[in-house]
Amino acid sequence: MLSLLSLFLLMSLGFAQTETQELESYIQTFNMKPLPELTPRNHDLYQLGARLFFDRDLSGKGNISCHDCHSMGAFSGDQLPLGLGEGATGLGKERDQAEGVILPRHTPPLFNLGFNSVKTLFWDGRVQRDPRGGWMTPEEKINGPTPELSHIAKSLDSLLAVQSLFPIANPEEMLGQGSTLSQVEAWEAVMERIFSGKFTEQYKRLFKAAYPELQDYNIAHVANALAEFERHQFLSHKTPWDLYLRGEKDALTTRMKRGANLFFGKAQCINCHTGEHLSSFGFQNVAIPQIGPGKTSGDDKGRFEVTQNPSDLYRFRVTPLRNIALTAPYMHSGAFSNIWQVIDHYDHPMRSLHHPVWNPKHPQYRDELVLDTSRENMMARMKSLPMTLPRNLALSKEEKTDLYCFLMVGLTDKKYQNRLHKGILDEISDCSPRIDQRSSFRR
Ligand code: HEC
Ligand code: HEC
């Protein structure tokens, strides 16, 4: 009897070691690193950025700020399948379409975008660095090594800053439906509103503090401040996964380790979700159904909309994965409302594409959000699926649960672990947010 027990103990010990060893070898093979620290915060620039991020005066009609779509209560997203533009009301779950249009794509969260290792922004990567120097964006005049508006282009200090120029110049998002201003005119109008609006005196002080050496400001200085705010406000790199990689070997439970091993091994997520952000920042077609208005004639061809290169059809940017437990729904079209659905999709993408789980009724929208189930649409997507997307993972229920646990708890920052949906996680053994036990905030 005693020897049986010790055999059992030995075996379970053996298994536990195997999981850890397997994970350690994946970490080596794929050279996995935790997210690094950021450069220290520039306090004055951050303060200016915070003011701007919440300021509806940045919009053409004074009715929408960055925060209306990327809200704090909704973990820097809007909790909707597809974003709602200028004219919509309320935040997060309270958001209502009202006079706004349904935007073509899901509002992404803003976590960890301030690192230089983030190579592309937007679902189609239309903001990136130009390999020849300078920027590559939807505005010709600030692009490339010798931009026409060099006073703006040369003052922009990061890719994240460049990105922020576009929501404010987009008629449906912030500029105002029906506006005929060019992007450059829209930026000039923003500067005018800031320096001749009701908060001018406050802004003069904030700009002076943030840029003590400057007399003249342009939209790049607004953009840099917004980026500094986003960079630090949405920095989130203390997940169990990061802690484990930093040497806290008990940060992941055995189940989470098994989930991570599936991520690197059998489930092949690592084919695309690589590097410290768990994203290659490249573009792939992973057979996500089309929902809503799309970019052109009811469809969204992803990266192709930017490059017009047929090999980019239906490719979207590989999404970074920190804190995904908090930022449902998922994918560029918001097609999946939870992580189980995402896992089921990857388990058998063709089956998922042909039998989508989608409820068209969302109380926030005036009309139903229609999913395109036409044969043409499905065929078009299937034609360009990459070899790196496994066609049939055949994951068991237990394996799906392991993966789920790694994605949901293993990748959620400890400062948000107490916001996880306990109801669902409590039913899974060895998946509870471990950090809590050590945290002084919870029993
Ligand atoms: C009307 C809603 C709305 C407003 C207002 C808005 N955004 Fe967004 N934001 C979106 C949507 C939708 C996308 C995705 C668009 C796409 O990829 O085509 C996005 C994308 C982004 C991204 C890219 C994230 C990534 O991972 O690629 C950043 C950064 C961002 N927004 C920051 C801002 C800032 C800063 C402001 C204010 C200047 C702002 N947004 C205003 C809806 C909004
Ligand atoms: C062939 C490349 C590829 C593989 C393999 C892959 N992904 Fe993805 N992943 C992507 C792309 C591209 C997107 C964005 C697709 C879109 O929106 O159309 C994405 C999006 C996601 C999202 C949505 C994140 C969000 O915020 O909306 C999750 C979660 C995710 N992947 C998890 C996984 C997991 C788990 C695996 C392994 C089972 C996996 N991925 C395998 C390329 C890949």
Strand content: under 5%
Number of helices: 18
- Bound molecule kinds, no repeats: heme C
What is the name of the CATH topology of the largest domain? Answer: Cytochrome Bc1 Complex, Chain D, domain 2
Total beta strand runs: 5
Uncertain ranges: 436-443
Number of domains: 2
Query: What's the mean pLDDT score?
Result: 93
Q: What is the topology, as strand order, of the major beta sheet? A: 1-2-3
Q: Which architecture of the largest domain would the CATH scheme give at its second level?
A: Orthogonal Bundle
Rg, Cα atoms, Å: 23 Å
Describe this structure in words.
The protein is mainly alpha-helical. It is built from 18 helices and five strands. It has two domains: 14-36 and 239-383, Cytochrome Bc1 Complex, Chain D, domain 2, CATH 1.10.760.10; 43-70 and 110-233, Cytochrome Bc1 Complex, Chain D, domain 2 (Orthogonal Bundle), CATH 1.10.760. Helix content is 37%, strand content 2%. It has a three-stranded antiparallel beta sheet with strand order 1-2-3. Bound molecules: heme C (2 copies). One heme C binds next to helix 3, helix 5 and helix 6.
Topology:
Elements: H1 2-29, H2 43-53, H3 66-69, E1 120-121, E2 127-129, E3 135-136, H4 150-153, H5 159-163, H6 171-175, H7 183-196, H8 200-210, H9 219-233, H10 240-245, H11 254-264, E4 283-284, H12 304-307, E5 316-317, H13 339-347, H14 349-354, H15 375-383, H16 397-410, H17 422-426, H18 435-438
Antiparallel strand pairs: 1-2, 2-3, 4-5
The chain binds heme C (HEC) (2 copies).
One heme C is lined by residues 267-269, 271-273, 284, 286, 288, 316, 318-319, 321, 324, 327, 330-332, 342, 346, 386, 388-389, 407.
